[in-house]
Amino acid sequence: MDQTLKIELGKQGVFVTTLQELYNWGRRSSVWPMQFGLACCAIEMIATTMARYDLARFGAEVFRPSPRQADLMIVSGTVTKKMAPQVVRLYNQMAEPRYVIAMGACAISGGPFKQGYNVLKGIDRYIPVDVHIPGCPPRPEALIQAFITLQKKIDGQHLTGADRPRHLDANAQGEFPVPEFGEHDLEPTSNQGVWPVEIQGTGNREQGTEGHSQRLTCD
Amino acid sequence: MKSVEEIKAAIEAAVPGAGVEFVPNPGPAAEHSLRLAPESALAVATFLRDDADLAFDFLSNVTGIDWPDKEIAEKAKVKRQVIKTVEGVDQQLEETVEETRKRVEPGCLEAVYHLYSIAKKHGPLVLRMKTANRSDQVELPSFTPVWRSAEFQEREIFDLYGIVFRGHPDLRRLLMWDGFKDHPMRKDYVEPDDYEYEPTAHDEVLKRAQEHKSREQGSGNREQGSGIA
Predict the structure, then answer these.
(1) A112: nearest CA in chain B?
(2) Which of A120, A124, A132, A184 best tests the B interface by mutation, with the highest count of B CBs <10 A?
C-alpha cells in the first residue's frame, strides 16, 4: 500500500495495515531471550536488562530459563569446544521462530582465545547467527543496537515467497547437527550448511536466516 | 621462615633417605626450590604439613612443566692418526681435530607445588618432582591425600600435560572431554588445522593461515564448493 496514502488515512483516523506488518510487529515487540550466559559478555547482557539500560523498552525483558519458551539466544561469551555441543543442543530445543545474536569477539570468532586449543572459533560454525556484535565485551548500547537490528530484520521478513523465514517454510531444516567430541577436535569441525558464511559483494557478512535455510535444504 | 637449605636439612633429619635436591634459582628473585624424589615425596609432604615449625598447611598452586628432548651439540678435541704426504714421503702424523658431537638429553615432565603456611604466616616453599620420561613413565605421587586443594590442579595437569598422579582419588580430565587424546600444553602438541581466516599481526599464525589456504586450494576448495551448492 502506498505509504503517503496510509499516512493521510491515519490523519483521518483510519488505521490501515497488512497482516504481515501486524504479525511482524507482534513478533518483534516481544522477543523473549534465553537466560543463558557463557562468560564476561553475560555481565554486560545482565547490565543491559537492568534499570540503567533497560532492555524492557524494546519488549525483551522476559529472560526465560528454558529454551522451550525463548525466541532469542544471545550467545554471550566464549564458546569452548566442550560447551559447543550444549549450545547447539539448546538452540535445537528452542521453538521456531528463533534468532541468534552472537555477542562479543569470542562468540563471533574466538576472540582473544582464537589460537587456543579449546575455544570454538565462532558459534556461526554450527548455528545460523542473525546479528554479530564485535567488542570485548560490547557495551550495553551495542547489545541494544544489535537488538534493534534484529527487530528491523524481523520487520522486513515476508510471510510468503522464497525468502520467507524458516518457521513458515515446511521444508526448512530445523534440527542442526550437534557436534561430537572427537579424539583431537570436535567432529565435524563445522556444520557445512551454515559455514562458511557467504560473503556478499561489499565484504559484509550476510545477516539473514533465509539464506541459511535455503542452503540447508540444498545441501 | 627457615631458609630453603634449612628446610632441606630438616626434611633429611626427619625422613631418612628422602633424596631431596636443592635447586638454586640464579635470578634476582632467588626463589630456590627443592626437588623431591617421587618415592619418598609423600612422606616429605606429610612432614612439611605436620611439622610444628614449618606447618605448611596451604597448597596454593600446582603447575606443570614440559621439558622436551633436548639436542645438545658439544665441541670436543679429538686426536686422530692422519697420513700426510710431506716432501714426497708418506708420514703418519697425529693431529688434533675439533669435532661436534650431538647427544640427546631425554626430556621429562615436571610438577611444581607452591606451599604456604597460614598458621606461621610464611611461604612460599617451592617443591618440584620430575617424571622419568615424557612417554611411558609419567607417574608421580599425588599430594591430594595431604593437601585437598591439589585435587583439581592435579587433574588439570593430568589433562594438559599427561602426568599420571598415583593415589589421586578421582583422576579424570578437567578441561577437555574424556575422549580427548592429546595433552595441549605439551610443547609438541599439534593443534587442529582450522586457520582459515586470521586477521592478526602474528607472523607465525599468518604463516599457518597461508599454509591452510594453500592446502585447501589443493584439495577441492571448500568455500567454492558451498558457493556452487
Answers:
(1) B200
(2) A184
